[in-house]
Amino acid sequence: MTTNKTLTILSLIVGTALVVGCSEERRVSFKREVMPILKQNCVGCHLPPSSEGFQKSGLSLESYETLMKGTKLGTIIVAGSSLNSSLNRMIEGRVDPSIRMPHGGKQLPAKDVETMKLWVNQGAKNN
Q1: Distances in Å between the alpha carbon of 53 and those of 2, 22, 102?
Q2: Which residues touch 70 (CB under 8 Å, ≥6 apart)?
Q3: CA distance 65 to 122
Q4: Hey, what's the torsion of the CAs at 48, 82, 112, 89, to 10 degrees?
Q5: Dist CA 107 CA 57 (whole Å)
């Protein structure tokens, strides 16, 4: 009888651990995931001192610090809120088409848009 009870309790513990483990959201790394997306799709136009995107907006995407500094008009990342982050609105197409990013290029793949969204929602950390 004790063996059955022990097995039942053990099964419940393992089952609960599996459910909790499977429901956790993946953690997004700025260095491994976000920066490569920016380098591939954005840095070409947002690199100081002479790129067009940098000249117009003042946004430099050469580092975490310059990304978080934002544009001439202010920040573009609201850590913890992709809904309120200008960067997310522009890459998701939630803005006027004339300012959608990448400007004049193809929209980012859905997986990259989701990665950027998760990163911002997770606090936009320099990790």
Answers
A1: 70, 41, 10
A2: 59, 76, 77
A3: 17
A4: -70
A5: 20
Give the tokens for residue 56.
């117009």
CB 79 within 8 A of CB 118: no
Q: Are 38 and 67 in contact (CB under 8 A)?
A: yes
Residue range 15-33, pLDDT digits in tens: 555 444 555 789 999 999 9
Q: Tell me the two tokens of residue 34.
A: 């976000």
- Map tokens 């920040």 to a residue: 75
Any idea which residue has 């998760």 for tokens? 118
Indicate the pTM of the whole model.
0.79
Q: Which amino acid is at 79?
A: A
